[in-house]
Amino acid sequence: MKVTMTVNGEEVTAEIEGRLLLVHFLRDQLGLTGTHWGCDTSNCGTCVVWLDREPVKSCTVLAAMAGGHDVRTVEGLEQGGELDPVQKGFIACHGLQCGFCTPGMMMTARALLDKNPDPSEGEIREAISGQICRCTGYATIVRSIRWAASAS
Ligand code: FES
Ligand code: FES
Predict the structure, then answer these.
(1) Best of 41, 61, 108 to mutate for ligand 1, by most ligand atoms within 8 A of CB?
(2) What DSSP string describes 29-60?
(3) Which residues contact 74 (CB under 8 A, 6 or more apart)?
(4) DSSP 71-114
(5) What is the rounded CA–CA span in Å between residue 100 and residue 43?
(6) Cα of 135 to ligand 2 centre, how many Å?
(7) Residue 67 CA, ligand 2 centroid: distance in Å
(8) Where do transmembrane segments lie in this chain (predicted)?
(9) Nearest bound ligand to the CA of residue 136
(10) For atom 4 of ligand 2, which residue has the closest CA?
(11) Is 136 exposed, middle or buried (0-12, 13-18, 19+ CB in 10 A)?
(12) Which residues pair with 54 in a beta bridge?
């Protein structure tokens, strides 16, 4: 089947199998490997992208379901060659260790800050509660998002 969607501001049309998950479409067909794939069972959250500006676990969405919608991945976070404050925060506050959970964490963080520019630590922890950091660096992730909030 043929599917058309917008990915990071550009319209994409591709031939796909109906059972293809969005995470695999992004990684394997579009080469957007910034979106990671950790479990396929909706547990880890490293696959989070935006679907119409809402963070979703892209292993829970069929690529066909994204047809006609706006998808944004971590590659689309920076704008005009300038890193997003969330990305800068993760650098400044050592928000990543191995980096595996980082793309999903950053997409959730940006969506949170767009709705709530000054979240409390509790609100940040709630927002990322569906995502796992195997390196257990939650304190620095929260600090990075707080840094982005104060820099925005
Ligand atoms: S790969 Fe999607 S939640 Fe783990
Ligand atoms: S930084 Fe390694 S899983 Fe989070």
Answers:
(1) 41
(2) IS--TTS--S-SSSSS-TTEEEETTEEEETTS
(3) 34, 35, 49, 103, 106, 107
(4) EE-GGGSSBTTB--HHHHHHHHTT--SS-SSHHHHHHHHHHHHH
(5) 14
(6) 4
(7) 31
(8) none
(9) 2
(10) 133
(11) exposed
(12) 51
For residue 148 the two structure tokens come to 């982005």
Ligand 1 pocket: which residues have CB below 6 Å? Answer: 37-40, 42-47, 57, 59
Residue written as tokens 């990671």?
A: 36
Per-residue pLDDT of the chain (152 residues; tens, 9 = 90+): 999 999 999 999 999 999 999 999 999 999 999 999 999 799 999 999 999 999 999 999 999 999 999 999 999 999 999 999 999 999 999 999 999 999 999 999 999 999 999 999 999 999 999 999 999 989 999 999 999 999 97
What backbone phi and psi angles, to 5 degrees, belong to 92?
A: -65, -35
- For residue 109, give the nearest of 24, 21, 45 by alpha carbon: 45
